[in-house]
Structures are given as structure tokens and as C-alpha cells.
Specification:
This protein is α+β, with helices and mostly antiparallel strands. The chain is 35% helix and 25% strand. The chain contains 4 helices and 6 strands. It has helices spanning 45-70, 76-80, 86-92, 94-116, and strands at residues 8-11, 14-15, 21-23, 37-44, 137-150, 153-164. Strands 2-1-4-6-5-3 form a 6-stranded mixed beta sheet. A hairpin with a 2-residue loop joins strand 1 and strand 2. The radius of gyration is 17 Å and the shape is globular. It starts with 7 loop residues before the first strand and ends in an 11-residue tail after the last strand.
Length: 175
């Protein structure tokens, strides 16, 4: 698997392959029965836009539309800042960007890093195709506890666990 330039992940001070990172979707940030290990993901600020532009811009558009439709905002700071793109957020709205990355974009970021590292998920041939389950062993981010900016890097610190991620495709299967 390819290593994306300048992006590093350390789990317990050991370098971890980027293609084998994932994010806990269900119960993100909740207690885990598996042992948790500290991690640090370091992403160059210059790489952030390329990794997240599409999903970030889609999120901004959804926020804009919701704010207009409901005449109130879930993220008033974002509305007050006039929905800036990632580059503008890095230039002048870092605390807001850090919060958005943790609360809304961490799964998208890890998926983009995986794709950029050469990982391609298997495609299901039909509903319930368990052979297409993603059963790679990797490190799963349970929670990002802090995002900071240091010398041109965006640093994500948190906890996660080692495990096997299996997407069960049989849920709702009809006989």
C-alpha cells in the first residue's frame, strides 16, 4: 500500500499503515469493551483540502440549506463566518474547523486517507454478499479527543482499538 506524503499515524508510538485505519461509526466516542490505545494522526494542512474538499463542501451546502429552511443554525459560528471552505477555515477559523473535523468529518477524513493510500473496499455482488465483507485487521478510531495545529500539521489525538472490522451485509436479508 502507498504511503500518503506527509501523513503519519502513530499508535502507542508505533507507526501504523494508513490504509488500515478506520473510524467507529456506531457509538463513536462511547466506552469500548476492547482495550483502547492512544493514537496521533498527523495530516499536513496543505493535504487537508485535497482529502476533504468534496465531503466538506457537501456538508457546508447542507448546513446552508438547513439554515435557510429552518431559519436557525445548528452551527451559528459557521453561519456567521459565511460558510468558508477549508482553506479559509485554516486561515481564520481554526477552532471552528477543529470542532467540525471531530464532530462531523473524522470518518470522511480517514476514508479519504485510506483511498489515497491505495485501499479499495470490496464491492458486494448482491444483497447479503458476506464474501464482500471488509475483514481487514486494523486500528479503529474510537474517539478523537483533541485537534491541534502545529508547524503546518493538523494533529488528531485520541484513542482507538485494534480489531477486525466486518461489515455484515446480511441485515435485512430476505429469504
Amino acid at each position: 500500500m502507498a504511503q500518503v506524503s506527509g501523513i503519519r499515524c502513530e499508535v502507542g508510538r508505533q507507526l501504523h499503515p494508513l490504509a488500515f485505519l478506520g473510524c467507529r461509526e456506531l457509538n463513536y466516542g462511547q466506552r469500548s469493551a476492547l482495550p483502547l490505545h492512544p493514537f496521533r494522526l498527523s495530516v499536513p494542512e496543505t493535504a487537508l483540502a485535497g482529502l476533504l474538499d468534496a465531503s466538506f463542501n457537501s456538508f457546508l451546502q447542507t448546513c446552508r440549506e438547513d439554515d435557510l429552511q429552518y431559519e436557525e443554525s445548528d452551527l451559528p459560528e459557521l453561519k456567521e463566518a459565511c460558510y468558508p471552505d477549508i482553506t479559509a477555515m485554516l486561515a481564520g477559523h481554526r477552532p471552528l474547523l477543529a470542532g467540525m473535523l471531530v464532530d462531523f468529518m473524522i470518518g470522511d477524513l480517514l476514508a479519504a486517507i485510506g483511498r489515497a493510500s491505495g485501499y479499495r473496499p470490496p464491492r458486494a455482488r448482491h444483497w447479503g454478499d458476506v464474501e464482500a465483507a471488509d475483514d481487514r485487521a486494523y486500528f479503529t478510531v474510537n474517539e478523537v479527543q483533541q485537534v491541534s495545529f502545529d508547524y503546518g500539521q493538523v494533529l488528531f489525538d485520541g484513542q482507538g482499538y485494534y480489531g477486525v472490522y466486518v461489515i455484515w451485509l446480511t441485515h435485512g436479508r430476505r429469504a
